[in-house]
Design a protein that fits this description.
Blueprint lengths: L3 E2 L6 H27 L4 H26 L4 E2 L3 E2 L6 E3 L15 E7 L16 E3 L2 E2 H16 L5 E5 L4 H7 L10 E5 L3 E2 L1 E2 L17 E2 L6 H7 L2 H7 L4 E6 L9 H10 L3 E7 L9 E5 L2 E5 L9 H5 L6 E10 H9 L8 E9 L2 E9 L13 E4 L11 H8 L3 E4 L2 E4 L9 E4 L6 H7 L5 E11 L2 E3 L4 E9 L6 E3 L4 E7 L5 E3 L1
Helix pairs in contact: 1-2, 6-9
Length: 499
């Protein structure tokens, strides 16, 4: 993938050897992909599958070239973005032209499973607030928007082969709602063996773990290939608001929408200020007069601390993106979208053995450099409220927020940033979280919470300031009903110490 560092010189013989090696690897890959395509008998399925394999082959060949060539950015040339490349939300005009909603469509990235939180099926069906799932809240938000402004903003879901069937079944319950929901699948690419760089699957119907969805950078190709892009353009839609399905802060913002229309920007990335919890988040940089996204994986070890310095790189990418649909069509059809490749190492099991595999991914944020007038907008932290772990789940279920038309709103009595919550392994899965915290504590005055070990919270518990609860192995701590814990450390013997 594209990395950052100093340039290294190579001899002509080295380049010739690598070029020959790459040609052999590419030729072998092409032969195997052709055999994979031949395993499909249905003509319609085969046509789509061949297109996906062609896209994968293009990505694979580019990976070979980039891996063996000098594609590094020079750290000394990295500069902070200019005022034209990053602007503050507060500096955007307050225009709320409602007619702009006729040009808008909303897309949620819905390809992820809930396995990291111990759930089966799409992550979007995890209950997050008052009996509502991620998907329920997204639907309620758009439905209220359409009802409030008498608009017809459609909601699109980009599924993966892991989530498509379940999602299609689930969205049927919204058929009576005032909302048009469309879904389409992102591509299905073959994983490759790390040693031979040959595909894992032997035919189209091979095991699911032989395949992978190639990251949300696939959005552009998948939207085009599915026909949904042309359908949106035919409806007069011009702007697509994209966000992660688990970001509960990503709601339609008329101020940003109208700013995009007024400036003629083809791409806007929402950024928010970094805290010490966000030091690994990708950030926008200016490089040779071009705005780019810099990810931590691209930074060499000697500059990691500099990258994590929140004074030098002050904000990060929320993955809330506003993208011009005509520009997507232009760039896809001219094959101009070459996002940085992210090699993701995984392991799968074959005949009881762990096999090392590689999957090549891209991120849609990295596409920013290909769009005209692209820039970042630094938005309030309230627009970034992701739920990646059960620690995040505790936050969004708490009294810190209230639900209003599908959107979570911060309680106005809260002062300062959201509390930092760290829950141990007993709380990693939703089932364990629900068993140990059956009643969500009051945390409106909480700054920091750490709980590790076999800890159970009773009803009506209030947490304030800094609260640390550490239960030793083999022991159990029960926090009694009605407890008020403020600036305390609780250990395995229930000894309470002033913090």
């Amino acid at each position: 993938m594209l990395s950052v560092g100093r340039k290294h010189n190579k001899t002509h013989s080295t380049y010739a050897f690598e070029s020959n090696t790459n040609n052999v690897a590419a030729s072998q890959m092409r032969n195997v992909l052709n055999k994979l395509a031949d395993s499909v008998k249905d003509e319609k399925t085969r046509c789509r599958f061949e297109n996906e394999l062609d896209s994968f082959f293009t990505l694979f060949r580019r990976y070979l070239v980039e891996k063996s060539s000098d594609t590094t950015l020079e750290w000394e040339k990295i500069k902070s973005p200019s005022a034209e490349e990053v602007t503050a939300y507060s500096d955007i005009g307050a225009s709320e032209n409602l007619a702009s909603l006729e040009k808008l469509a909303v897309l949620k990235l819905n390809g992820g499973l809930g396995t990291s939180m111990g759930c089966v099926g799409p992550k979007s069906v995890i209950e997050v607030r008052d009996g509502n799932t991620f998907l329920d809240l997204s639907v309620r938000q758009i439905e209220y928007l359409n009802r409030q402004y008498d608009s017809d903003v459609p909601l699109l879901l980009m599924n993966s082969f892991n989530t498509d069937a379940d999602t299609e079944h689930l969205i049927k319950k919204y058929s009576a709602n005032r909302i048009r929901i469309r879904s389409f699948n992102q591509s299905r690419f073959p994983r490759v063996y790390r040693d031979s760089l040959l595909p894992v699957p032997q035919d189209y119907n091979d095991k699911l773990d032989a395949w992978y969805p190639p990251g949300h950078g696939d959005l552009f190709e998948a939207l085009h290939a599915s026909g949904e892009l042309d359908a949106l353009l035919a409806q007069g839609r011009e702007i697509l608001f994209v966000s992660n399905g688990d970001n509960l802060g990503a709601t339609v913002d008329l101020k940003i929408l109208n700013h995009m229309i007024e400036t003629g920007a083809e791409y806007i990335m929402e950024l928010t200020d970094k805290t010490r919890a966000d030091v690994k988040g990708g950030t926008l940089i200016s490089y040779e007069g071009q705005v780019r996204l810099l990810e931590v994986a691209q930074v060499p070890k000697e500059h990691i601390d500099e990258f994590k310095n929140i004074r030098k790189f002050t904000n990060f990418n929320t993955n809330n993106l506003w993208i011009n649909l005509k520009a997507i069509k232009r760039l896809v059809e001219s094959s101009s979208l070459t996002m940085e490749i992210i090699p993701n190492k995984k392991t799968i099991t074959r005949n009881g053995n762990e096999i090392e595999v590689l999957q090549l991914e891209t991120a849609c944020g990295a596409a920013i450099r290909h769009f005209k007038g692209a820039h970042g907008v630094v938005v309030p932290r309230s627009r970034f409220l992701p739920v990646k772990t059960c620690s995040d789940l505790l936050l969004v279920k708490s009294d810190l927020f209230y639900l209003e038309h599908g959107a979570l709103k911060l309680d106005p009595s809260r002062f300062g940033p959201n509390p930092l919550i760290k829950l141990g392994s007993h709380f990693k899965k939703v089932s364990g979280f629900n068993a140990h915290i059956p009643h969500i504590p009051k945390i409106i005055e909480l700054d920091h919470l750490t709980i590790t070990g076999n800890v159970y919270l009773g009803k009506n518990v209030t947490l304030k300031g800094t609260v640390i609860v550490v239960c030793s192995d083999g022991q159990r701590i029960d926090i009694p009903n009605g407890s008020v814990l403020e600036n305390v450390v609780i250990t395995g013997n229930l000894q309470i110490l002033e913090h």
